[in-house]
Amino acid sequence: MKKGSTWVVILGIICALYGISSRYRIENADKTVELVVDAEALRSYAKKNDYQIETLLSDLVVIEIKALAVPETNLAEAASNKEITVIPGTYLLLSNLKDLPAIDPRKLYIIDQPSGPVSQRIGLLGQSKSLADNLLWEFSEVYPVSTTRRKEANKELTISIWDEALHPDYDLWQVANDTNLRIVSRIQNPFFNNQTNLSYVFSQWQDKPSLIIFAGKEVLGYPDNLPEAALLINDKTWGLIEFANQYGEKELARLTNYNVVRVHSITPLEIIKIEPHKAQERYLRAVRERGARVLYLRPFPKLSWQENLTCFKILIDSLQEEGFRPGEAIPKPFFKSSLVLFWPVMLGIVICGIELMLLLGFNKSFSLYTGIVFLLLITGLYLKGYTIMARQIASFGAAVVFPTLAIGKVAQNVHKGKNKLLIQLGTVLGYTFLGILFLTASLLDLRFVIKVEQFLGVKLMHVLPPLLSLWICFRFLGFNWSKKKLRRFFWPLTWSHILIIVIILGAGFIYIGRTGHDWGLPVPKAEENLRIFLERVFLIRPRLKEAFIGHPVLCLALLVAAFTPQAWYLPYLLAIGSIGITSVLNTFSHAHTPIMVSLVRTGWGLLIGAAIGVLAFYLLKLTARKITRG
User: Fold this and answer.
1) What is the pLDDT of residue 485?
2) DSSP labels for 206-251?
3) Which of 259, 359, 361, 403 has the fewest other C-beta atoms within 10 Å?
4) Which residues does 118 contact at the CB level (< 8 Å), separation at least 6?
């Protein structure tokens, strides 16, 4: 790298450090965690175990749980409570009521006043007919859902009128007021909505909720009236539920100026099966590692109330031990690095990308022009307002460039005879550190931190560095397989060859499939137990790919390069070792994870991996000596 380029990279490092320090200060100040209890689950628990819900709530207040999530009452519940009467069309036809309008025996009918909840909230789903001083509403029992509205509509073809919400659960609302608990509203989106019925929904809550957590699969106003919903929400905080992926949440977050907090919840089905200590670990992990600031609690059905209180108290004590405090969740202030800070970082990534292209064998002119094109493309996108896309491209570039460059420089050093261990180790750590800085700085935007937006290309970033590293290693260290050797090894084809191919393909499939967690590959019980063990020992556990695969192999490769650089297997060790550096960059691509957590996780991975790698090297030397003597 030339002197001018080096100074530009140094400028990028300074800008990256400045921007990252701002994010660190915001994360460090965000230590308040709100614990919210599901009112419906608590009422059900109280009824089943012969408790008064007021007594349970008083006990919760004592242990600093002061927020109650109040649900809305749906049509089925309102009918069951005899608040309204739902009449099948056949009954009306057989009744003696006079002056009935035309009745369809396949429909359901509800009598309501023009200002009532049926008329105001779900009237868009039906048709109204005059009946004396009231309205007779005609509804179908189910309504079709299109795949343009919900992607799972090819499996769940319809929604039921019985599931539509009518009003807040006023009984639970009153209980919350009587016990001085903060009300968290679980507002459900009307399936058909417009500005009128959305305004009615908010008027039902009388401006009471301090926090909104939307119920169901959609946020309020989805799909066509999100701007109207945003105006109604105004400056109220609302919750993004982890892993729920509610339809419309990203757009509504944008429209409400990202006035959101991340929520972690254990579903009613999960709470029945999960062991209390695992639930506590899960809640703590969500707060510590993924920025959740609202914990949505349900009582454990199989435990006594005293045992439930003990579990909740242990959770609160554990949060406080880790430096968090119970209280009202506060959204993070909006921040993003300016173009003045982002551009030097981007330029640094491009310069290192050009260096990588030279290692791959491209000529200088082509490498330079390609770098300029990418720089202009990302800058143009940013200036045109596509700032998220520009950041995603820059961060993906950093995630691919720096792991490959680290390994490529090691191979180049070995080729030049610069194979001293400290030089090689410094090269790897230096480029890894550069990658961490530039990738993290590329994602300096609140939208990544609250995971409204996220890093793209996870699988590809895990595939490219090992393949590109292997190619560079072959260029500088040789292929070490002549045509004669290849023919002798692969011919005649035997079952052993097929087994080797199957193992390699299987390992590749698992490696790619387990990144991103979207292929549904199960986690083996042994691995799950190892994760739990490491978490108990280190609190913030290292990633297994780093600690037990990538870093040990990379450490072994560096030792082999230092002491036996002519080893035929060195290129393969270096390529596999790139997995560890790639995994480190992937750790920092999770912008919703606090920076200090990612640093600690990376540090433990490096220490464990280095120890295993050194041990493997000495075992390899010992084995080689015994074979030589034998």
Assistant:
1) 64
2) TT--SEE--BSSB-TTTTT-HHHHHHHHTT-EEEEETTT--BTHHH
3) 361
4) 84, 110, 112, 137, 166
Residue appearing with tokens 């480190």: 584
- CA separation for the pair 383, 385 (Å, rounded): 5
- In this predicted model, what pLDDT tens digit does every residue of 177-190 receive, in sequence order? 999 999 999 999 99
| Rg, C-alpha atoms of the chain | 30
Q: Cβ of 132: how many Cβ atoms within 10 Å?
A: 10
Residue pair 225/194 in contact (Cβ under 8 Å)? The answer is yes
* Location of structure tokens 């400290």: 422
Helices within 491-550 (DSSP H only): 495-513, 525-538, 544-545
Which residue reads 């929604």 in tokens? 159
| SS3 per-residue string spanning 362-404 | CCHHHHHHHHHHHHHHHHHHHHCCCHHHHHHHHHHHHHHHHHH
DSSP state of 536: H
Residues 494 and 300: their CA atoms lie apart, in Å, by 57
* Whole-angstrom distance, CA of residue 98 vs CA of residue 85: 18
Question: Which class for 143: exposed (0-12), middle (13-18), buried (19 or more C-beta within 10 A)?
Answer: middle
Separation between Cα atoms, residue 572 and residue 144, nearest integer Å? 55
d(CA 40, CA 134): 32
| 3-state secondary structure at position 261 | strand
Which of 263, 192, 255 lies closest to 229, judged by CA? 255
Higher-confidence residue: 518 or 470? 470
39-61: buried (b, 16+ CB within 10 Å) or exposed (e) per residue?
Answer: bbbbbbbbeeeeeebeebbebbe
Q: Please state, in angstroms and rounded to a whole number, the distance separating the CA atoms of residues 247 and 222.
A: 7
Does residue 214 contact residue 228 with C-beta atoms inside 8 Å?
no
Q: Does the pLDDT of residue 627 top 60, yes or no? A: no
Question: Pairing state of beta strands 182-185 and 67-70?
Answer: parallel
Residues forming beta bridges with residue 295, ordered by sequence position:
35, 264
Taking the CB of residue 539, how many other CB atoms lie within 10 A of it?
14
Give the model confidence (pLDDT) of 498-544 as tens digits: 777 788 777 777 777 767 655 656 777 787 788 888 888 888 999 99
At 516 the pLDDT is: 64
What burial letters (b/e) apply to 421-446, b meaning 16+ CB within 10 Å?
eeebbebbeebbebbbbbbbbbbbbb
Question: How far, in Å, CA of 506 to CA of 133, rounded?
Answer: 71
The residues that bridge with 297 in the sheet, in sequence order, are: 37
pLDDT per residue over 152-162, tens digit each?
777 888 999 99
pLDDT at 498: 75
Give pLDDT tens digits for 287-338. Answer: 999 999 999 999 999 999 999 999 999 999 999 999 999 999 999 999 999 9
Helix orientation angle between 595-629 and 551-563, rounded to the nearest 10 degrees? 50
The answer to whether the beta carbons of residues 54 and 625 sit under 8 Å apart is: no
Q: Would you tell me the crossing angle of helices 339-360 and 3-29 to the nearest 10 degrees?
A: 130
Closest by CA position to 182, among listed 298, 283, 60, 77: 60
